[in-house]
Amino acid sequence: xxxxxxxxxxxxxxxxxxxxxxxxxxxxxxxxxxxxxxxxxxxxxxxxxxxxxxxxxxxxxxxxxxxxxxxxxxxxxxxxxxxxxxxxxxxxxxxxxxxxxxxxxxxxxxxxxxxxxxxxxxxxxxxxxxxxxxxxxxxxxxxxxxxxxxxxxxxxxxxxxxxxxxxxxxxxxxxxxxxxxxxxxxxxxxxxxxxxxxxxxxxxxxxxxxxxxxxxxxxxxxxxxxxxxxxxxxxxxxxxxxxxxxxxxxxxxxxxxxxxxxxxxxxxxxxxxxxxxxxxxxxxxxxxxxxxxxxxxxxxxxxxxxxxxxxxxxxxxxxxxxxxxxxxxxxxxxxxxxxxxxxxxxxxxxxxxxxxxxxxxxxxxxxxxxxxxxxxxxxxxxxxxxxxxxxxxxxxxxxxxxxxxxxxxxxxxxxxxxxxxxxxxxxxxxxxxxxxxxxxxxxxxxxxxxxxxxxxxxxxxxxxxxxxxxxxxxxxxxxxx
Amino acid sequence: xxxxxxxxxxxxxxxxxxxxxxxxxxxxxxxxxxxxxxxxxxxxxxxxxxxxxxxxxxxxxxxxxxxxxxxxxxxxxxxxxxxxxxxxxxxxxxx
Amino acid sequence: xxxxxxxxxxxxxxxxxxxxxxxxxxxxxxxxxxxxxxxxxxxxxxxxxxxxxxxxxxxxxxxxxxxxxxxxxxxxxxxxxxxxxxxxxxxxxxxxxxxxxxxxxxxxxxxxxxxxxxxxxxxxxxxxxxxxxxxxxxxxxxxxxxxxxxxxxxxxxxxxxxxxxxxxxxxxxxxxxxxxxxxxxxxxxxxxxxxxxxxxxxxxxxxxxxxxxxxxxxxxxxxxxxxxxxxxxxxxxxxxxxxxxxxxxxxxxxxxxxxxxxxxxxxxxxxxxxxxxxxxxxxxxxxxxxxxxxxxxxxxxxxxxxxxxxxxxxxxxxxxxxxxxxxxxxxxxxxxxxxxxxxxxxxxxxxxxxxxxxxxxxxxxxxxxxxxxxxxxxxxxxxxxxxxxxxxxxxxxxxxxxxxxxxxxxxxxxxxxxxxxxxxxxxxxxxxxxxxxxxxxxxxxxxxxxxxxxxxxxxxxxxxxxxxxxxxxxx
Lengths: 481, 95, 475
Known about the structure:
heterotrimer; A: alpha/beta; Amidase signature (AS) enzymes; eleven-stranded mixed β-sheet; globular; B: mainly alpha; two-stranded antiparallel sheet; 2 strands
């Protein structure tokens, strides 16, 4: 029997019934990863995983994460393991500590197997800019589709069915967009729910940790088991949120869902439109009320520039520690300045340099009023507008992406900024935001996104679970190639 | 964008761009500038208060001033190519 | 002087904590290089700052001592620049919301009181230490992340004397409140001077010159004098004073150029997104302030007004926090404040100097010194006898009265005995009596001295003196 392509609960059941052991599973996962052709791996942790798996002797019946293997996006610190954020400037950098979320998962006896590729330093949305090159989507006939980014390797690996879940991060849509392209459940909780200790920072007040799985239950379980206040992260939430698993089965009856009409109106993929409208009808049949609502279009257009300006600006500071002096892939130089200049010039790809320059420009004395400062103000208005919507509605629902996963060399769609990038509103507001698959477009997954008010994680997960019941698209995977 | 400014922006961050990269950046900047201009269209945008954190709760926690053991010297310096004899060593830095 | 001197000071205080401002690494001074460095101090990716409670309390105390408004919400910002001693490539500081603002310090100077207004007081973290060798620079991250408080005055200071008095007052406050060691020579107190000149009567500020790396209070005065001289000469010659950063060079006793100041470096400040705002509850702040040790200026008022001591003795004792605390403790056991303080700044200090000890090294408890003082004031011991007792008990802490008895030093006040000796002395010096009767009072001292000699100093001199007068009058 194969132990791949299983959800957490399914694998757990096998453990409980004694049909397999963590070491068996880990060995199969490793074999599958070694056969993978989609360029998803950074540093592997095979030896550590085998040792850990071998040490797990007695099944913990009530611990669903016991012995569950998982992948880790390479911008999350793993002790004793090279962690590069897919950037050459961190080649050879071995973290001396585990991220809090890694510690929590290991305490639950879940087994990290390997680090995964990503867009360099988290800055990118295609999965093409990491130092190992393009990461491929397992969906699509000819190995020629992107999986999105920046959590590309994690998404591709989970979509291939190797492991039930992967850890990932989301600063603008880096979990929720690849989830859509890869038929996965991708969840970004409320800001502050998951400790960011150990997550390589990109833009602190937009950065979130989250999960990629193949079922809503799995993501809900993971959220419940890893959320909570952490003294090491001075932005983790004080108020204790309720667990989400217990309310997944609450019915859709009486729920009010808003579809933002100006975004929806821009979509052109006919399958997507048809399937979305089908979904709406089925939700209403279950008692939900779905309304197509207006929304200030200037603010919708403001989402991308606000995200770009703020994230590029603060990325310059988040990565100012990368100089090669006390760690990192240092290059030679006659002077201290040369060492730093050479290390950074050679270590960062040109795309990263461009973003840094844009960020530097946005923060400079002469220009910051029209860039950084103004973006902070636009953030206020965008967040306010969504909160007003959330006063009336339980969630905003929209296709997570305008279409299925694009071909690698395809030109970007013209005028596709708003519907392509609106997901960043959930980072600006720290809103809980979930992408789940809702249809297949000639075999290629389409995802729908649900976003709600901050601290309403349980509600959003409940809605997602109900929609999953409707679509039946549960545990979608491509399987072995 | 003016080449001089591009070079300033880059050198402030200890980066250097090739001429091709400078040209490509110029194009990216045009796009960026056009995006930023969308913010200007929002009425009274500059009168709005800035948002610094997505949400704010009352928090009072401060870390107790108790020593936590740190890693031994060779370990804490293990990631530095410039470390020797317990120090990080660089060519003499001029202020 | 045709120029008005405008001086502002920027003082950095390294505050006393067991750990660093944002990490739990030890802050112990002078540890072997890189032995107190956490992953946070190294700025490894994924690390996050954790605010030190004691550092915040130190800042609250200092802000209170400087009469400042205390912000009840903590906000931090990033000050961005690249330098080899700054691992993160930015320093976490407080730009928008300093914990203290709008304060002042009143200086007591010879010419009167002068108020220096204080613009702001904020928390920030220290940089790594660099050791510059001939061809290399060694970086030690032990110091990286230590808690600092920065105090910025308004440009109210006008002379080197005022500047030195201000820094001395700060030093006094930080040591007395236990907030810092306040040692300029160790770097726990640092001072930068900003100085400009303008023609008297002008209201336009001249070009500011910054002088850094001053390592003693006296150097502050020297630097200001040197700068006044240098800038006046330039202005007199019709030249411009350039905006520069300079340092004091001991060997030439003058300031020398470090670098030209940029027209304000752009630090691109923005909020520290890894520290959400922290509320300082009103009663927490009040509790911290309540636990603050008594400020030196409060002590001074008490000493002058209640104890009726004079400025001179008060200023001397306040120079040493430890001596002052010893004195304070002793005042619980004696009301003879005058005698007590003279003992502390006199006999005790002389002993410490001679033996190369500090007050913490002696065994004599303040309570027993107070007892000794009381014995003197009650006439039971003469000063000379008390000194002998002191030397015997300073490292044993034996009870002074018991020790005096053991040494057979108890001062004699037995009138009959004294009269007997007095009459003996008079009989031996009848010619002196005539002198005294003729108005030469100085001879009294001689006679009393003879009595002291005969009794080996055991007699109460005041008593001997008055009895002597009486006997002479009888003759």
